[in-house]
Amino acid sequence: MKKIIFIVLAVLLFVGTLGWLFLKGIKKDTVYETTTMTKEDIKKRTMATGKIVPRKEVAIKPQSISGIIEELYVKEGQIVKKGDKIAKVSIIPNEVNLNSAMNRVNVAQINYNNALKNYNRDKDLFTKGVIASVEFEKTEVSYLNAKEELEGAKSNLQITKTGALSGNKSSNTTIRSTIDGMILQIPVKIGNSVIASNNFNDGTTIASVADMDEIIFEGKIDETDVAKLYIGMPVELTIGAVNNEKFEATLEHIAPKGNDDGGAVKFEIKAKVNLKEGQAIRAGYSANADIVLDKRDSVYTLKESYLTFRNDSIFVEVLKPGGEKQQFEERPIETGLSDGINVEILDGLSPEEEVKAGVKKD
Fold this sequence. Notes:
By secondary structure, the chain is of the alpha+beta class. The protein has helices at 2-25, 95-127, 133-162, 223-226; strands at 32-35, 38-54, 57-60, 67-72, 79-80, 85-91, 172-176, 181-185, 193-194, 207-210, 215-222, 234-239, 246-254, 259-261, 264-274, 286-303, 308-310, 313-319, 328-332, 334-338, 342-347, 355-359.
């Protein structure tokens, strides 16, 4: 009896296994999602990275004097007018210039003493009628010239020593703002040495002043997109430090020459930031410029992922009408503008036709 039961179980197991393998070998029909074209607005965009800077920023430097910062009259963020005091510089005379000025005074003093002596002598002789007026006038002119030269030499020595003439209240030179604007940076402190700007030295910047009422975006754009740009096109700025706010700008400069940037050629662009009432941003913010290169309004589109690209042609799989099972035919189509996700369909497909859009999920 047990033997019979064992044989029956074995047969049932064998039959069940065969049935399972048979069912497994039957290929189920794959069901696909389908979709039709939809009308969308397509915008082809490019992104430029850069920063926010003032259009007009000036580095305030001593123009003709070197010395030590004795006093600072402003602080960062302060609004100043053209001519306002920025700092006071105490002059440290240049030894060569100082020696030259002192030598000039000594020579002028000698010439003056000699001219004065001659003048007094000839004046006495002219009074007594010994010499003619012509001779006395020559002596007088020489005396006056020597006097002027001595005064000029002394003034030059005073300026060389102190940076100012004796009539000033102190021997310090005041550095003033050359424009209206805001103090952005003061890279020096009281006691720091400063150097005058000249042909051989840029000089020491005492303060940076900028007009913050007019700011611009400076950035770089890839060479593949620069040909699509034009002066006056709108730009939308996103600033990482300013959340949930967009800033409108207008493109106003495209560099005529590109520069290598990490192996890629990029062109510099500038856009005027159009601040609305109540909007304010700081100089130096990093920013991204979103530029619409081309757009299509209300056109038929499909997702690019539904398309097949082969050689120079583009295809979609179109659902054949009727029938219990899904059947598709491959059809070439003509496309237009793409934003990287959706693509414009120009020809080869009608609005009601369905195309394959991926395997349907259970």
